[in-house]
């Protein structure tokens, strides 16, 4: 990595979790951990619906794991609302092994990505700041 290419920013992420039959959350975070030159932390709230401006203003990206959508629609709804209200870019990760994503999520996403670790990091870094 060239010195000019260094990105010392620590990305503050909200990553969907919840009912996760295929351990997509665990697999996703493993991808992030595998890229030692990518600095990140995760913000977690007991209720994303009730978390306010103080919580969301610190968040750089909301990561929606599309494979968890069907079993966690309420959680996704709260995060979609927060992303819109606080102008947080959404990085939508396709379901493991599939190309299609729910249309309601695709419409709100700043970017859509598969499961390649390099592509995930690029999507997080390059997600448009405005929605």
Automatic annotation (TrEMBL):
SUPFAM superfamilies registered for this protein in UniProt: Hypothetical protein MTH538
Superkingdom in the source lineage: Archaea
Name assigned to this protein: DRTGG domain protein
UniProt organism field: Methanobrevibacter thaueri
Biological classification of the source: Archaea, Methanobacteriati, Methanobacteriota, Methanomada group, Methanobacteria
């Amino acid at each position: 990595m060239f010195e000019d290419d260094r990105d010392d920013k620590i990305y503050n992420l909200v990553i969907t979790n919840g009912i996760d039959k295929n351990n997509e959350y665990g697999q996703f975070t493993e991808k992030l951990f595998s890229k030692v030159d990518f600095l990140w932390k995760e913000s977690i709230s007991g209720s994303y619906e009730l978390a306010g401006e103080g919580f969301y203003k610190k968040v750089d990206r909301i990561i929606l794991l599309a494979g968890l959508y069907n079993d966690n629609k309420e959680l996704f709804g709260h995060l979609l609302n927060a992303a819109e209200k606080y102008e947080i870019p959404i990085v939508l990760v396709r379901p493991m092994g599939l190309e299609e994503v729910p249309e309601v999520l695709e419409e709100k996403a700043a970017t859509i990505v598969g499961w390649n670790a390099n592509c995930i990091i690029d999507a997080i870094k390059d997600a448009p700041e405005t929605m």
